[in-house]
Amino acid sequence: MAESEVDAAAGAADAAPKQQFVTQRIYIKDVSFESPASPQIFQSNWQPAVNVDLNTKTNRIDDSNVEVILSITITAKQNDETAFICEVHQAGVFLISGVEGENLRRILGTVCPNILFPYARETIDNLVVKGSYPALMMAPVNFDALYAEALRQASEQVQNAAAAGVAAEEAAVGDETIN
């Protein structure tokens, strides 16, 4: 390779934006624990029905920093009575640069929640134990699968909306021809 070709290749590499991903900070944004049926609930045989709700939210801080919030709400019911509700909003600030479009959405929807989840799981377990309930170790969550499912559902909604729009348009055209 000629020296000028090497210089051109190096110049092109320098011109391309460098991708960067750095966890800046991880913190609890909000936390809540309620035990509305205590102390009576402690007298029953503990066999709860546990419901887990997960959600993520992103807030752009500046050009390269994004706050990602993983919200987890655990509701435990014993015989249709709410034993406890534990809600944790685990957040993190992530420096992300040189990444755009679908790759950025995938990082925000999978990589960041995967980093935040162990912290949220530990906080939930600590709160539940301090509420005098048995330890609650949440199973790992596959955020990649959740992200893929959300994309599939969004695609279906777009297709259904498009089909409904075509049907409405055809109905409107049909009404005009009848008149």
Descriptive overview:
This protein has one domain (17-163): Roll (Bacterial Protein-export protein SecB). The protein has helices spanning 3-15, 101-130, 143-178; strands at 20-34, 49-60, 65-78, 81-97. Strands 1-4-3-2 form a four-stranded antiparallel sheet. The protein contains three helices and four strands; from the N terminus they run αββββαα. It is α+β, with helices and mostly antiparallel strands and 179 residues long. 44% of the residues lie in helices and 32% in strands. β3 (65-78) and β4 (81-97) form a beta hairpin.
How do the helices and strands line up, and which of them pair or pack?
Layout: H1 3-15, E1 20-34, E2 49-60, E3 65-78, E4 81-97, H2 101-130, H3 143-178
Antiparallel strand pairs: 1-4, 2-3, 3-4
Helix pairs in contact: 2-3
